[in-house]
Write a structure and sequence with these properties.
Distance between the termini: 30 Å
Number of helices: 0
Shape: globular
Structural class: mainly beta
Helix content: under 10%
Low-confidence stretches: 1-16
Largest sheet: 10 strands, antiparallel
Length: 512
């Protein structure tokens, strides 16, 4: 029998910081996790595989952990799926459902799931010092895995060739498998094609471009209709970078363009030219998230109804191994459904969090309340629940609108989300959020440019036990940060400063 642990976001083992375990965000029971891997929907189940250290709560012994869900919110943790061994660590990759049995690992009637992962070969291996792409397969719906005897199936003699994302491509010349991977230290995405997942032919290279001050990792490439128009489809190339993201350390950028089955070509408006010294203004690049804690984001294969759903690692390599939690360390972001919408006349990603279908009755609702240089107390966050704040605000003459989250009943300790009407920016400030001293790079205030729609500030804020995720302007701007409030700091309030604002709608709801 397969041993499982069922929990809404990781379970609650005996731990040194019980109030830190997220409610809605997945964590492993008592080990380390990082990059999401092999995201796939299969036979009615979402599978989340991920980089996992089965033996400790710091990075090392890289293997694929495994969890499943039917709603992307409540997860069942399973035993390690693909384990490291004396020859290799098992780095990031993807999974496809091989419906045509092109690999021969299954049958036409019962096709296999095939994982394409990076083998990071250890000292003593015949491939030592290199990274190459390998296969594993499952014929029992992803619960057990066998490494392919012919591994690796694709190498370049490189020490930093990794993170394959594979998908089925249907083009004028027929269908094939496409792989996007990276030469991490050359800031390049490399594309290959295959008929059977075993033999691969080189197609093209993209990059460097835009943010290229660190290693490129965990690419993804997928089509999306613009504004839901099936006759107007663009391709999105996601490239994660560490370090060198807009908020510092790790982050994810994207490009919008076209893919013809061989080459990805970015639209000119997706590219930011370098200055005379070769520097790029990072604030002009396209970012999945403007916060510090959304990295290695990739999308699910085979999601129902052609939905494009992404999950990222909610952490940053600047301080990842130092987070003040035990026995678990690190979590995943909320799942996000992404679409392409026209923003200022250009196709851009919008992201919406996957939340419970029935959120229950709000603890507070407000409509058409005018505030002038005042403070509005809101319901406190509830222990053991996450908090959802939804607001539509007309800033009017006010200079700033601020939400004080997970605050002390007295004093200044809190995480502060603020909109500055003078600079048209949204800032998530965790410098006084609680425990920030565990690492010198943790305390931060992260800002994103934000343009009002018809003068309206629209916010959806999800506050979990140790995180804040903000989706502004219907998901056009996203900010995600970890926070570690001191015990008992649950206060929530809204402030209007420098003038008068109209709260058109505001609701505060507990989620579990």
């Amino acid at each position: 029998m397969t041993e499982t642990t069922t929990h809404p976001a990781g379970g609650r083992a005996a731990e040194t910081a019980p109030n830190m375990r997220p409610i809605l965000h997945y964590t492993a029971k008592n080990t380390w996790l990082n990059d999401p891997n092999g995201l796939v929907w299969h036979q009615g189940v979402y599978h989340l595989f991920y980089q996992n250290n089965p033996f400790d709560n710091i990075w090392g012994n890289m293997s694929w952990g495994h969890a499943t869900s039917t709603d992307l919110l409540h997860w069942t943790e399973h035993p390690v799926a693909i384990a490291c061994d004396e020859e290799e660590d098992v780095y990031s990759g993807s999974i496809v459902a091989d419906r045509g049995n092109t690999s021969g690992f299954g049958t036409a009637e019962d096709p296999a799931l095939v994982a394409i992962y990076t083998s990071a070969f250890k000292e003593g291996s015949v491939h030592q010092g290199t990274q190459a792409q390998s296969l594993a397969f499952s014929t029992d719906a992803g619960m057990t895995w066998t490494k392919y005897a012919g591994n690796p199936v694709l190498g370049r003699g490189s020490a930093h060739f990794r993170d394959p994302k594979v998908f089925r491509y249907e083009g004028p010349a027929g269908s094939c498998w496409i792989m996007v991977a990276v030469e991490a230290q050359h800031q390049q995405v490399v594309l290959y094609r295959s008929a059977d997942l075993k033999d691969w032919d080189y197609l093209s290279t993209f990059g460097p471009a835009n943010a290229s001050g660190g290693e490129w990792e965990c690419p993804d490439l997928f089509p999306l209709p613009v504004e839901g128009d099936a006759e107007n489809v663009k391709w999105v190339l996601v490239v994660n970078i560490n370090p060198g993201a807009v908020a510092g350390g790790s982050g994810g950028q994207y490009f919008v363009g076209d893919f013809d089955g061989v080459r990805f070509t970015a639209d000119p408006d997706s590219l930011v030219p370098a200055d005379a010294d070769g520097n790029v203004d990072l604030r002009h690049c396209l970012w999945l998230d403007w916060g510090r804690d959304y990295y290695a984001a990739v999308s699910f294969s085979n999601a129902p109804e052609n939905r494009r759903i992404m999950i990222g690692w909610m952490n940053n390599w600047d301080y990842a191994n130092s987070l003040p939690t035990s026995p678990w360390r690190s979590s995943m972001s909320l799942a996000r459904e992404v679409e392409l919408a026209m923003v200022d006349g250009l196709p851009r990603l919008v992201q919406r969090p996957v939340l419970p279908l029935d959120c229950g009755e709000p603890a507070l609702t407000i409509q058409n309340m005018e505030l002038r240089d005042s403070l509005l107390p809101l319901p406190d966050a509830m222990p053991g629940s996450a908090q959802l704040i939804e607001a539509e605000i007309l800033p009017g003459t006010a200079r700033s609108i601020a939400f004080r989250l997970l605050g002390a009943s007295r004093g200044s300790a809190a995480t502060v989300l603020s909109f500055d009407a003078v600079t048209s920016s949204l800032t998530l400030d965790r410098r006084k959020s609680g425990n920030t001293a565990f690492h010198g790079k943790f305390a931060s205030a992260d800002s994103a440019p934000l343009k009002l729609d018809g003068g309206v500030l629209r916010l959806r804020i999800i506050v979990d036990e140790c995180s804040v995720e903000v989706f502004a302007q219907e998901g056009r701007v996203v900010l995600s940060d970890l926070v570690f409030p001191l015990s008992g700091n649950l206060g929530t309030e809204m402030r209007v400063e420098g003038g008068t604002a109209m709260v058109r709608k505001l609701a505060v709801t507990s989620l579990s």
